Amino acid sequence: MTYSIETQEEIQVLSVDNLISEFENRQILEEVKDIIETGANRFVIDLSKLRFLNSAGLNFLISVLTKSRNAGGDTVITNVSEDASKLLVLTKLKHVFTTANSVEDAYQLFANQN
After folding, report:
1. pLDDT digits (tens, 9 = 90+) for 4-15
2. What's the rounded Cα separation, in Å, for the pair 15 and 45?
3. pTM > 0.85
């Protein structure tokens, strides 16, 4: 799995190419936890490279969302594929997550919160 976390405009942008492995997801979550401990609490998860979303991936998304909200921030997921969107609807998580069409749209959502 490849992933990256970059800070842009005080927002952590997490790009992932898969979230299939629970073990690998935990490694990313540790890094997210460390970032939150530095005071950052707003995350954008870019799913543009994600081809498949399973229960491990859903658990990962819920974990990042929970950690960011517990720290007083939020998480926006972007570039959600049609299949992933159907899974969010099926699992009744569509209304739990804030979604945006692009990373730039997610920035605008955060800007409107201020």
Report:
1. 999 998 999 999
2. 6
3. yes
